[in-house]
Amino acid sequence: MRAVSITSNNTKPNNKGSFRRRRLVLIVLACFMSWAGVTLWNQVSKLGAKDERMSSLQQELDETRKINEATKREIVRLNDPEYVEQKIRKELHYVKQGETLFYVPKELKK
Known about the structure:
Low-confidence stretches: 1-11
Radius of gyration: 41 Å
Number of strands: 0
Mean pLDDT: 86
């Protein structure tokens, strides 16, 4: 019987020790999970900001590509002498000898 009572006395301290270890592990785990949650929350907000920035840069890139394509078309058209003549006549108001240039006033909108 003595052996049984010694064993039962030894189990109580082991139970207290294992309970303390479990509690310590759970506290450490809770601290880790809290830290991980805060870090994840910060990363999600930063990711959202980066996503907004990326979409605005993508729109800017699309606009720049459109301007680039228009400029390339203009360069190709400037190699045509007829287009150059039309452009000079329209923008600089040049006329050929013997032609008369008439200005038509624009109507004011009310």
